[in-house]
Amino acid sequence: MSYIANTLSNLAQQSAFATMSVGNIIMIAVACVFLYLAIAKGFEPLLLVPIAFGMLLVNIYPDIMNEGGLLYYFFKLDEWAILPSLIFMGVGAMTDFGPLIANPRSFWLGAAAQFGIFAAYFGAIAMGFNDRAAAAISIIGGADGPTSIFLASKLGQTNIMGPIAVAAYSYMSLVPIIQPPIMKVLTTKKERAIKMEQLRPVSKLEKILFPIIVSTVVSLILPTTAPLIGMLMLGNLFRESGVVRQLQETASNALMYIVVILLGTSVGATTSAEAFLNATTLKIVALGLIAFMFGTAAGVLLGKLMCVLTGGKINPLIGSAGVSAVPMAARVSQKVGAEEDPTNFLLMHAMGPNVAGVIGTAVVAGTFMAVFGIV
């Protein structure tokens, strides 16, 4: 009997129930909410499902993120900035840069949306974060998960990389919830119903030259952006050159999805109760939300100004797409515009600022690295 009792006791002590805390239960509940939003509501399931499942696993079995655990090695690829760069290549391979080329004014809208990053930077400084931590946190305002991970790694902020990455990816996923109220408050029905002229056709030569020129110019000015901008433009060159279809398909499909699995689950696994349920994390999440809201508002407000200056030819809603969440933010611009006029088609117009926002966020990250002397 004593043998059976000892065996049962050992099994009980080895179960997750023996070490599970109230904090773990809270994080498991959060993971289940994320899974619900992804599966039942369709909020960016490609991001939320792996993130939420990683969150679930680490709060049941914490050793999965300790050295020797499976997700520990996945996260090392984040720390080494490998996965964020590969994500950028996949984004470039699947994205048409034509709307940005056809309407270069979109760069201004993408630039305006970066205002949220600088607002968050000074906010983080005011909350007591050091300058490097503030810079890493502020990039959340661009709604760009890969760039947030990349900058946190380069600035040596791996201790807060988990909360930063989770906040950035969560806000990317929740774009359809966060942005529309801000867009509607800052615009009138008349502005939201504006129909924009069809974009001019973009030649194949323009599409081929664009990634080459952008990579060269940006990398010459800010060499530290080369891993992100270079991979983004390389993926797009795969797409537009038309001679490496196999590479384009691999980068935008198989490789992209593999990287999303590795990155998503490892990011989710940084949210153990001990690491996530604290005042620092709450500050980071709050700052990220404020930054994202400020960035959205700045893009819309510049869109309103451009609307006035062009005599009503630009729908201010496309300014909200200046954040880096591709193509979610552009879809939201389309959705809100279609609510006022079902025949209004803003998606392609919004893709211009959306792509500009990706480039802009990477440039801001490179600027921070240059300021802090990171090579």
- Evaluate the radius of gyration: 22 Å
Element order: H for helix, E for strand: HHHHHHHHHHHHHHHHHHHH
Poorly predicted regions: none
Strand content: under 5%
Main sheet attributes: strand count, strand direction, barrel closure: none
Structural class, judged by helices and strands? mainly alpha
Q: What is the helical fraction, as a range of percent? A: over 70%
**Per the principal axes of the C-alpha atoms, what is the gross shape?**
globular
Count of separate DSSP helical elements = 20
Strand elements, count: 0
Mean pLDDT: 90
Summarize this structure as a short list of keywords or feature phrases.
375 residues; mainly alpha; 20 helices; 73% helix; globular
Structure commentary:
Helices cover 73% and strands 0% of the residues. It has 20 helices and no strands. Helix 3 (45-60) runs parallel beside helix 16, helix 10 (145-154) runs antiparallel to helix 11 and helix 14 (204-221) packs antiparallel against helix 15. The termini are far apart.
In short:
The protein has 375 residues and is mostly helical.
Indicate the topology.
Blueprint: H1 2-14, H2 22-39, H3 45-60, H4 70-79, H5 82-94, H6 98-102, H7 106-112, H8 115-126, H9 131-138, H10 145-154, H11 161-173, H12 175-186, H13 189-192, H14 204-221, H15 226-241, H16 245-268, H17 273-276, H18 279-309, H19 328-340, H20 347-371
Helix pairs in contact: 2-3, 3-11, 3-16, 4-16, 5-10, 5-15, 5-16, 7-18, 7-20, 8-9, 8-18, 9-10, 10-11, 10-20, 11-18, 12-18, 12-19, 14-15, 15-16, 19-20
